[in-house]
Amino acid sequence: MSGLGARQESLRREAASLEAMGDLEGAAQALDRVLRHDPMHSATLASLAALRLRQGRAADAEPLLRRVLARRASDPGALSNLGVALRMLGRLDEAVAVLAGAVARPDAVVESFDSLGAIRSLRGEAEEAVAVLREAIRRFPQAAPTWANLGLALHRAASTAEGEDAARRREDAAEACRRAVEVDPGCASAWNNLGSIDRDRGRAGESVAAYRRAIAVDPRAVEPRTNLAGVLRESGRAAEAIAEAEQAATRAPHRMVLHSNHLHAMNFSDAVAEDRLLEAHAAFGRRFGTGEVFSEADRRARLRELFRPGRPVRLGFVSADLRRHSVASFLEPLLEHLDREALELTCYADVPHPDEVTRRLRSLVPRWREIHARPDDEVLAMIRADSIEILVDLAGHTAGNRLGVFARRAAPVQVSYLGYPNTTGLPQVDFRLVDEATDPPGSERLAVETLLRVRGGFLCFRPDPDRPARAPRDPRRPVTFGSFNSAAKITPTTIDLWSSVLRRVPGSRLLLKARGLDDPFVGDPLRAAFAAGGIDPARLDLRGRVDDPRAHLAVYSEIDVALDTFPYHGTTTTCEALSMGVPVVSCVGEGHRSRVASSILRSIEDLDLTCPGADRFADLAVSLASTCAHDPGRFLPPRAPRAFAEDVLETLRDSPLDRGARSEAG
Fold first, then answer.
1. 350 DSSP β-pair partners
2. pLDDT tens digits along 153-175
3. Quick one: fold of 287-453?
4. What average pLDDT does range 109-129 have in this prediction?
5. Comparing 21-25, 49-53, 253-257, 476-480, which segment has the lowest mean pLDDT?
6. What is the mean pLDDT of the chain?
7. Virtual CA dihedral for 469, 475, 479, 485, nearest 10 degrees?
8. Which value, to the nearest 10 degrees, does the dihedral of the CA atoms of residues 583, 587, 588, 589 take?
9. Looking at 29-38, 547-556, 633-642, which range is the least confident one?
C-alpha cells in the first residue's frame, strides 16, 4: 500500500472510531480529508453521505450520493439513501420515484422498502404503505426494523378505520411490533412504535413500559423519550413528563418540536409559576426566531395600514386541527361570519386524515391549502406566494404546530389565537388575541406578543347540534360533582380543591371521565391521592374516554356540578358542560391558562361561578349543588357568532387598547 493509501486508510479507521464514540462531525471531517485526495472514492462518498443523514444534513448528503450514482447508477445503498435525503428535504415526489425504482430491482436493500413505506404513510397513503412493507417482509422476513415499520403503518391505517376494523388493525399493528422484538429484542423503533400503539389504545401503563424499554435499548434516541413525556403528561404525571421532555430537547437541541413539547408539558404543572413559563417560552423564541421583529408601535401601525377602503385583507389560518377537534368547535362560527368584503380567507391545513368537519370548514373559505407532510420551507414559500398579510397560528406549542414557519416571518403581521394557553415566545409573532378576563391589564408582562383584547370575550363556542337532551335527574342518585378534563390537568392543587368540596357534602360522589382514567396506571395514583386527603376512593367514579360524541355528552346528565381544573382550566369541557345544562365552578389564577374559565363564565347572568382563590371554591360548588335547576339552556353564554366575528375584525382593525386610551384621554 502506498503512503497516500495508508494515510487514507488511517483516516477511514479514525472516522469509524469517532462515529462509534458518537462524534459524528469529527468522523465526517476525517472522511472529508480522504475525499480531498480521492474525490470520487465511492465507499467514502457513501459513508460521508450516511453520516450527514444521521446529522440531519440532507442537503449535504444529496450531492455526495449523486456522485456515487454517477459512477454506479444501480448502487442499491446509494439509491436508498438518496430517497431518504429527498424525503428529509421535503421532495417527496422525487423520493417516491427514486425508491419505487429501487425496490423494483432484484438487488434492492430492505432500507429502500422501509423508506418508501414511511413516505407513503406520511402522505396518508396508509394502504399503499402497508402493501410496500408486507412485500418487504416477504423478501426480508428477519428484518426487525421492517416489522416495526409495518406495525407503525398498520397503526396509522387504523386511524382511518372505525369500530371493529380499527381495533383489528391496531391489534395487527401491535402484533407486528411484537414480531420485531422477537426477531431482535434490541430493536428500539419496535418498542417505540409499540408504545405509541398502546398509548392510542388507552393502555398508558403498557405504553410507558414500552417507551422505557426503547430508551434502555438506545439511550441516545429522542423519539421514545419525547413520546414517553407525552404519555406521562396525559397520565397526570407532570413533573416526570417535564423532565423527560427536557431530556429529549437537550439531546437534540436543533429540533424545534422537542422544545415545543417541553413547553407544552410545563403548562400542566401547578409547580411551574407564570414567570418561569414566560422565561422558558422567551428562551425558545431567542433560540429559534430568525425572522424580522417589530416594535409594538410598528406592529400596530402595520396592522392598521392593512385595512384600507376598497380592498380585502388577505388573512390566513394555519392549523393541524381543522377536523373533529376542539379547535374546530370555536373556529367554525368565526369562519362562517367573518366579513368577506373586508377579509379574503385562506386555510393552511396540516390534516393527515380529513373528516366531515374538515370538509365543512373547507366549504367556508375560498382558498384551502393542504400542507400535511410538506416541509416548513415549502409552506413558507406557499404562504408568501399567496401574499398573505395577516397569518394566524391556531396551535401554539401543541402537536402539529408550524411555529417554524412563523419564526421566519411568513407574513407582515402574525397572530397567535385559540389553541394554546400561553405566549408562543416568538418575537416574530406580533399579536395574541385574548380578552380582558383572560389577560387583564398588567398581563402584558407574561407575553412576548402584543395583546389584542377582543371585546366581549375571545371565544365563541358552537355546541354540537346533535347533542342529546339532558336526561331527567334520578332523585335517588347522590349529589354528583364531575369533570371531563384530561387527566393531565388533574394536579395536586386540583385534587385539594375537589376534596374540599367532597368533604363539605357527605355522601356525594365525583365522576371523572377522560382518556386513560380506566387504566390502573392513571387511576390508581388518583385514588391514592384522594385517599391521602381523607376522601374514600369508593366515592370516585373513574371512566375512560367515550369516542361517540353523543354518548360522551350524555354522561353530563349524571353530574350536578362540574368542577374545573387548576392551574390549566378546561375550555371545550367547560363549554360542553354549560351546553348540557351543567354549571361549572372554577378557581381563577394569574396567567391565561388559569383564567380562561373567567372569560367563558362571566357572561352567565345572576351566577358567580368563579373565585379568586381556593377558599370560596367549595362554597360555590356546594351552593350550586343544592339550588341548581338544571335548565339545559340556562348556563350557555349568550355569544352570537355574527357579533363575535365583528368584534374580532374590529379588534384587528383597531385594538381595544387604542380605543381605551382615546376614551381615557377624552
1. none
2. 999 888 888 888 888 999 999 99
3. Rossmann fold (3.40.50)
4. 92
5. 21-25
6. 91
7. -20
8. -150
9. 633-642
Could you tell me if 393 and 406 are in contact, meaning their C-beta atoms sit under 8 angstroms apart? yes
Q: Where are the domains of the chain?
A: 287-453, 480-627
Q: Are 316 and 415 in contact (CB under 8 A)?
A: no
Does residue 3 register a pLDDT over 60? no
Residues 6+ apart with CB under 8 A from 660: none
Task: Classify domain 480-627 by CATH architecture.
Answer: 3-Layer(aba) Sandwich (3.40)
Strands (E), 460-616: 480-483, 509-513, 540-543, 561-563, 584-587, 610-611
Q: Do domains 287-453 and 480-627 have the same CATH topology?
A: yes
Contact 413, 302 (CB under 8 A): yes
d(CA 357, CA 363): 10
Q: Are 55 and 25 in contact (CB under 8 A)?
A: yes
Residue 427's alpha-carbon distances to 230, 292, 407, 656, in angstroms, are 27, 9, 8, 21
Distance (Å, rounded) from C-alpha 409 to C-alpha 412?
7
Cβ density class 524-548: b for 16+ within 10 Å, e for less: eebbebbeeeebeeebbebbeebee
567 prior amide bond cis, ω within 30: yes
- Banded pLDDT at 39 (limits 50, 70, 90): confident
Q: What is the dihedral of CA 656, 659, 663, 666, to 10 degrees?
A: 170
Q: What pLDDT score does 123 carry?
A: 86
In one-letter notation, the amino acid at residue 655 is: S
Single out the residue of 627, 360, 363, 576 nearest to residue 462, CA to CA: 576
Write the single-letter amino acid at 449. Answer: E
Q: Evaluate whether 602 touches 436 at the Cβ level (below 8 Å).
A: no
Look up residue 49 and give its amino acid.
Answer: A
Please report, for residues 157, 359, 404, 418, 507, the alpha-carbon distance to residue 549 in angstroms, rounded to integers and kept in the order given.
22, 18, 33, 22, 30
Coil, strand, or helix at residue 318? strand
Q: What is the pLDDT of residue 641?
A: 87
